[in-house]
């Protein structure tokens, strides 16, 4: 019973860890996210001039079989560098 409880606590803590890692990238160039998570699965130009980047994260679990999409919203700086301004936390319970 203790093992099951410990596993459940560990699974519930994972999304928090991912969101903390993501939030640490706010204010940094998008290349920092690319170094951490690899090539984006999708890049979307938003109507307001910002750009969305989505990265596939994790190999999946029973609750999220394909892993999670981690989303970052970036703005272009005057120097032409895309800077992360916002993150979108995965809605899945486990990533």
Describe the structure.
By secondary structure, the chain is α+β, with helices and mostly antiparallel strands. The longest helix is centred in the N-terminal third of the chain and has 22 residues, at 2-23. It has a 4-stranded antiparallel beta sheet, with helices on one face. The chain has one domain. The protein contains 2 helices and 4 strands; from the N terminus they run ααββββ.
Rg, rounded, reads 15 Å
What separation lies between the terminal Cα atoms?
Answer: 24 Å
How large is the share of residues in beta strands?
25-35%
* Main sheet: strands, sense, barrel: 4 strands, antiparallel
Q: Indicate the low-confidence ranges by residue numbers.
A: 3-15
Summarize the helix and strand pattern as letters: HHEEEE
The chain-level structural class is: alpha+beta
- The figure for the number of domains is 1
DSSP helix count?
Answer: 2
The mean pLDDT is: 79
**Could you give the order of strands across the largest sheet?**
1-2-3-4
Which word captures the global form? globular
Tell how many strands the DSSP assignment holds.
4
Q: What distinguishing features does this structure have?
A:
single chain; 95 residues; alpha+beta; four-stranded antiparallel β-sheet; 2 helices; disordered N terminus
Provide the fold topology:
Elements: H1 2-23, H2 30-37, E1 42-45, E2 51-57, E3 68-76, E4 82-88
Antiparallel strand pairs: 1-2, 2-3, 3-4
């Amino acid at each position: 019973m203790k093992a099951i409880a410990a596993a459940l606590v560990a699974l519930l803590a994972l999304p928090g860890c991912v969101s903390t890692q993501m939030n640490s990238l706010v204010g940094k160039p998008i290349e920092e996210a690319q170094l951490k998570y690899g090539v984006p699965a999708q890049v979307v130009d938003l109507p307001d001039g910002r750009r969305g980047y989505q990265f596939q994260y994790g190999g999946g679990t029973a609750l999220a079989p394909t892993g999670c999409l981690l989303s970052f919203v970036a703005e272009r700086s005057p120097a032409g560098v895309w800077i992360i301004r916002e993150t979108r936390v995965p809605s899945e319970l486990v990533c």
